[in-house]
Design goal:
This protein has a five-stranded antiparallel beta sheet, with no helix packed on it. The two termini are 14 Å apart. The chain is α+β, with helices and mostly antiparallel strands and 128 residues long. The longest helix is centred in the last third of the chain and has 18 residues. It is 25% helix and 28% strand. Helix 1 packs antiparallel against helix 2. The chain has two helices and seven strands, in the order H-E-E-E-E-E-E-E-H.
Length: 128
Protein backbone atom coordinates (compact mmCIF):
# COMPACT_ATOMS: atom_id res chain seq x y z
CA UNK A 1 0.00 0.00 0.00
CA UNK A 2 2.84 2.38 0.84
CA UNK A 3 4.37 1.72 -2.57
CA UNK A 4 1.13 2.58 -4.36
CA UNK A 5 0.74 5.73 -2.27
CA UNK A 6 4.32 6.77 -3.05
CA UNK A 7 3.68 6.15 -6.75
CA UNK A 8 0.61 8.40 -6.69
CA UNK A 9 2.54 11.17 -4.92
CA UNK A 10 5.38 10.87 -7.45
CA UNK A 11 2.89 11.14 -10.33
CA UNK A 12 1.30 14.23 -8.78
CA UNK A 13 4.69 15.91 -8.39
CA UNK A 14 5.78 14.93 -11.90
CA UNK A 15 2.60 16.35 -13.40
CA UNK A 16 3.41 19.69 -11.83
CA UNK A 17 1.09 22.66 -11.78
CA UNK A 18 -1.24 23.23 -14.71
CA UNK A 19 0.18 25.52 -17.37
CA UNK A 20 -1.38 28.99 -17.45
CA UNK A 21 -3.77 29.85 -20.26
CA UNK A 22 -2.47 32.35 -22.85
CA UNK A 23 -4.84 34.94 -24.29
CA UNK A 24 -4.63 38.11 -26.32
CA UNK A 25 -5.14 41.04 -23.91
CA UNK A 26 -5.74 44.39 -25.58
CA UNK A 27 -8.24 47.13 -26.37
CA UNK A 28 -8.56 48.77 -29.77
CA UNK A 29 -10.91 50.18 -32.39
CA UNK A 30 -10.13 47.12 -34.55
CA UNK A 31 -8.94 43.54 -34.08
CA UNK A 32 -5.88 43.65 -31.81
CA UNK A 33 -3.36 40.99 -30.81
CA UNK A 34 -1.12 41.05 -27.75
CA UNK A 35 -0.41 37.62 -26.25
CA UNK A 36 -0.06 37.37 -22.46
CA UNK A 37 -0.02 34.64 -19.82
CA UNK A 38 -3.20 34.67 -17.76
CA UNK A 39 -3.52 34.26 -14.01
CA UNK A 40 -3.90 30.66 -12.82
CA UNK A 41 -7.57 31.30 -12.00
CA UNK A 42 -8.43 32.37 -15.58
CA UNK A 43 -10.20 29.64 -17.54
CA UNK A 44 -11.38 31.64 -20.56
CA UNK A 45 -10.14 33.99 -23.24
CA UNK A 46 -12.83 36.61 -23.80
CA UNK A 47 -13.44 38.95 -26.73
CA UNK A 48 -15.99 41.72 -26.35
CA UNK A 49 -16.95 43.77 -29.38
CA UNK A 50 -19.18 46.81 -29.20
CA UNK A 51 -20.28 48.75 -32.24
CA UNK A 52 -21.22 52.32 -31.44
CA UNK A 53 -22.70 54.26 -34.36
CA UNK A 54 -21.53 57.61 -32.99
CA UNK A 55 -18.16 56.58 -31.49
CA UNK A 56 -16.96 53.68 -33.66
CA UNK A 57 -16.03 50.10 -32.79
CA UNK A 58 -14.38 48.95 -29.57
CA UNK A 59 -12.71 45.51 -29.30
CA UNK A 60 -11.57 44.35 -25.87
CA UNK A 61 -9.75 41.05 -25.33
CA UNK A 62 -8.80 39.65 -21.93
CA UNK A 63 -8.45 36.65 -19.61
CA UNK A 64 -11.50 35.76 -17.52
CA UNK A 65 -12.37 33.41 -14.67
CA UNK A 66 -15.89 33.05 -16.09
CA UNK A 67 -17.42 34.02 -19.40
CA UNK A 68 -20.93 34.08 -20.81
CA UNK A 69 -21.20 34.46 -24.58
CA UNK A 70 -23.72 37.12 -25.62
CA UNK A 71 -25.06 38.52 -28.82
CA UNK A 72 -27.34 41.52 -29.14
CA UNK A 73 -28.80 43.19 -32.15
CA UNK A 74 -28.48 46.90 -32.84
CA UNK A 75 -31.06 48.78 -30.84
CA UNK A 76 -31.14 52.45 -30.22
CA UNK A 77 -28.35 54.60 -31.59
CA UNK A 78 -26.89 55.04 -28.10
CA UNK A 79 -26.81 51.33 -27.28
CA UNK A 80 -25.33 49.95 -30.52
CA UNK A 81 -24.65 46.25 -30.92
CA UNK A 82 -22.48 44.10 -28.68
CA UNK A 83 -21.12 40.56 -28.63
CA UNK A 84 -18.99 38.55 -26.21
CA UNK A 85 -17.15 35.44 -27.37
CA UNK A 86 -15.56 32.88 -25.01
CA UNK A 87 -13.02 30.14 -25.66
CA UNK A 88 -10.55 28.04 -23.63
CA UNK A 89 -7.54 27.30 -25.83
CA UNK A 90 -4.25 29.18 -25.91
CA UNK A 91 -4.55 32.37 -27.98
CA UNK A 92 -8.01 31.33 -29.20
CA UNK A 93 -9.26 34.93 -29.05
CA UNK A 94 -7.07 35.99 -31.97
CA UNK A 95 -9.92 36.54 -34.41
CA UNK A 96 -13.25 38.24 -33.85
CA UNK A 97 -15.11 34.99 -34.55
CA UNK A 98 -15.33 32.03 -32.21
CA UNK A 99 -13.99 28.79 -33.71
CA UNK A 100 -13.11 26.86 -30.57
CA UNK A 101 -15.80 25.46 -28.28
CA UNK A 102 -15.28 25.76 -24.54
CA UNK A 103 -13.71 22.71 -22.88
CA UNK A 104 -15.29 21.34 -19.75
CA UNK A 105 -12.13 20.17 -17.97
CA UNK A 106 -8.56 21.31 -18.44
CA UNK A 107 -6.05 18.46 -18.82
CA UNK A 108 -4.33 19.35 -15.51
CA UNK A 109 -7.69 19.34 -13.74
CA UNK A 110 -8.56 15.89 -15.10
CA UNK A 111 -5.18 14.49 -14.02
CA UNK A 112 -5.53 15.99 -10.53
CA UNK A 113 -9.03 14.56 -10.18
CA UNK A 114 -7.84 11.09 -11.27
CA UNK A 115 -4.95 11.17 -8.79
CA UNK A 116 -7.22 12.30 -5.96
CA UNK A 117 -9.72 9.51 -6.68
CA UNK A 118 -6.91 6.94 -6.82
CA UNK A 119 -5.59 8.12 -3.45
CA UNK A 120 -9.08 8.00 -1.95
CA UNK A 121 -9.56 4.43 -3.24
CA UNK A 122 -6.27 3.37 -1.63
CA UNK A 123 -7.25 4.90 1.70
CA UNK A 124 -10.75 3.39 1.74
CA UNK A 125 -9.93 -0.09 0.28
CA UNK A 126 -8.04 -1.47 3.34
CA UNK A 127 -10.99 -0.73 5.62
CA UNK A 128 -13.41 -2.79 3.47
Amino acid sequence: MKTALLLLVALAVAAGPARALRCHVCSSSSNCEKAQNCAASARYCRTSTKMEPLMGNLVEKDCAESCTPTHSLPGQVSSGAAATLCCQDDLCNRSLQSRAPARTLLPGTALGLALALGLLALLVAPSL
